[in-house]
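Hi, here's the filled form for the chain we discussed.

Project: internal
Contact: R.S.
Residues: 111
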Amino acid sequence: MSGFDELVPRLRAFAAAREWEPFHTPRNLAMALSGEVGELVAELQWLSDKEIREQLDGGALRERVADEVADVLLYLVRFADVCGLDLAAEAHAKIDRNEHRFPPLEANPSA
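And the returned structure, exactly as it came back:
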């Protein structure tokens, strides 16, 4: 069982123990997910790419970003579960579609 496979039953149990299932509708979870993405963006909003790279090496920004990334992931996993979607399978299918839409760049024959 992969780490992601373990998240689904753990999140189900977590929500059930708190009687949150009635609130975990696709709409509510999508809104919560959007809010958490906004919180992740807010951590990086006024920093340059260089500052972000430097501050992600350790310290407070890394901890805050890690917390927000975890929140985004947890809401996404819960959303997919409630919607009956296999998150890994859907991600692989999307990559497959993107491989057809965006073929690899071919080497420049004149170079």
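Let me know if anything looks off before we file it.
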